[in-house]
Amino acid sequence: MQQVFITGATSGIGRQLALDYCKQGWIVWACGRNQAALSELKQQAGEHLHPLCFDINLAAEIEHAARKITALDLLILNAGTCEYIDDAKHFDGALFERVMQTNVISLGYCLQHLLPLLKRGGKLALMGSSASYVALPRAEAYGASKAAVSYLARTLAIDLKPSGIAVSLINPGFVNTPLTAKNDFPMPMSVDVTQASHAIISGLAKDRFDVHFPKKFTLILKTLAMLPEFMWQGLAARIRK
After folding, report:
1. How big is the chain by its Cα radius of gyration, in Å?
2. What is the largest distance, in Å, between two alpha-carbon atoms of the chain?
3. Total domain count, the chain
4. Does residue 138 sit in helix, strand or coil?
5. Which neighbouring-strand residues pair with 127?
6. Can you state the angle between helices 93-100 and 140-160, rounded to 10 degrees?
């Protein structure tokens, strides 16, 4: 049986991925900080799901969890957070640190202890965001963190190829989750977690590097990213107002 390790599995996209991979017969190592949520997920998913409660920001806890696993076919580093900089002139350094720690630094811990578990022919998937395509208002922390994830995925794709490990970068548009429910702005073309999970599982099964969805939304952002910077900044300023 194939085995997948998913971080951030207690809610949102990660939770739905865990359920859907279980339905497909995979052994799922579902990870998160909320033991109660993991227990509920275990009850719903059944015997194929193995909950692991730890904090991705604590390298020692990741190392301890990794000892329980011998080999993986797929590693999905999905866990993340989102906070916005509301006043750039009075920049919130503590907020910036929190976002970068969870979205970027913790990936280093996970890669150190979990990547060696991937079999030759296995796959690593990192959760990016379509927000990294263009500079967006208030996204100094979140957007920068996901741009870092994008670069990390691209370099890993090069350096892991000789080891027989493929890399995918997941770039969702807006997905209706408990995290995005906090957004105080419209989320055009948003999808639910079931649609997101289907797009991710399908994209990974087809060995795509860039798994982005919904296509109508992400292709618009990709097109806007080709504009000269001064044009985009002018347009973004209007959006900000």
Report:
1. 18
2. 54
3. 1
4. coil
5. 170
6. 30
* Segment 55-112, tens digit of pLDDT: 999 999 999 999 999 999 999 999 999 999 999 999 999 999 999 999 999 999 999 9
Q: Is 46 helix (H, G, I), strand (E, B) or coil?
A: coil
Is 123 within 8 Å of 76 (Cβ atoms)? Answer: no
Q: What are phi and psi of 160, to 5 degrees?
A: -95, -10
d(CA 165, CA 19): 24
Number of other residues whose CB lies within 10 A of the CB of residue 93: 8
The β-bridge partners of 123 are: 74, 166
CATH number at residue 123: 3.40.50.720
Query: Residue 74: which H helix or E strand, with range?
Result: strand 72-77
Give me the phi and psi of 123, to 5 degrees please: -135, 140
Q: What is the helix (H) or strand (E) element at residue 179, kind and residue range?
A: none
Taken as a whole, the chain contains a residue count of: 241
Residue-number span of the structural domain to which 31 is assigned: 3-240
233's CB contacts (< 8 A; 6+ apart) are 135
pTM of the model: 0.94
Strands 166-172 and 118-127: parallel
Please tell me the predicted confidence (pLDDT) of residue 239. Answer: 73
Q: Report the SS3 class of residue 11.
A: coil
